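Quick one:
INPUT:
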């Protein structure tokens, strides 16, 4: 990506990663596990959640990561259920961010030209649009049922397989699987269509 595009996407990346991890942390605390609070993760500050290498990888390669929020499911009243709820919280936060910025784009259409110049309007709309796309991408990517992504906790948790030997065997190979999917660009074929469908659906609801 060129420098201008990187500058456009940075706000969406920072917001998406930070609120995604904060949502995990806050939900875990609400459900009885203070581990994220003790580790200082109850914050929306990017400084608390960013992994520098993961952040740079997003800017360079389009895929990266933040510092995962650590939880202790044994602190939950219903460990299996609450682990799924904590896992859902991050992707849900990304969906809400995407909806919020779609609404902001809608509002901007009604702001008179005398208030915003064409160039400023274009810059703001571009940043907002990238923020929507990035957060939908984070939503879809994290719902893949491949460890350690949130989708694996949800999928295997619902099936009652998280405590089975198969899950741990799959977990050991999962990072290699993700790496192959990313470097071969096959991941784009998997998550590209649902990203486009969700974006188009949200756009259709509000425009």
């Amino acid at each position: 990506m060129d420098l201008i595009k990187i500058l456009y996407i940075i706000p969406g990346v920072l917001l998406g990663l930070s609120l995604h991890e904060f949502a995990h942390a806050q939900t875990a605390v609400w459900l009885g596990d203070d581990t994220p609070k003790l580790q200082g993760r109850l914050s929306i500050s990017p400084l608390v959640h960013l992994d520098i290498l993961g952040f740079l990888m997003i800017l360079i390669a389009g895929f990266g990561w933040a510092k995962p929020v650590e939880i202790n499911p044994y602190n939950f009243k219903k460990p299996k259920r609450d682990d799924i709820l904590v896992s859902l919280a991050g992707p849900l936060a990304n969906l809400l961010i995407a909806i919020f910025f779609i609404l902001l784009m809608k509002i901007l259409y009604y702001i008179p030209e005398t208030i915003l110049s064409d160039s400023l309007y274009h810059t703001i709309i571009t940043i907002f649009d990238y923020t929507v796309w990035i957060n939908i991408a984070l939503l879809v990517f994290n719902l893949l049922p491949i460890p350690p992504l949130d989708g694996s906790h949800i999928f295997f948790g619902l099936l009652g397989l998280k405590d089975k030997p198969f899950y741990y065997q799959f977990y050991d190979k999962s990072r290699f699987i993700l790496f192959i999917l990313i470097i071969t660009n096959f991941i784009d074929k998997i998550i590209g269509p649902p990203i486009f469908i969700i974006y188009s659906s949200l756009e259709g609801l509000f425009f």
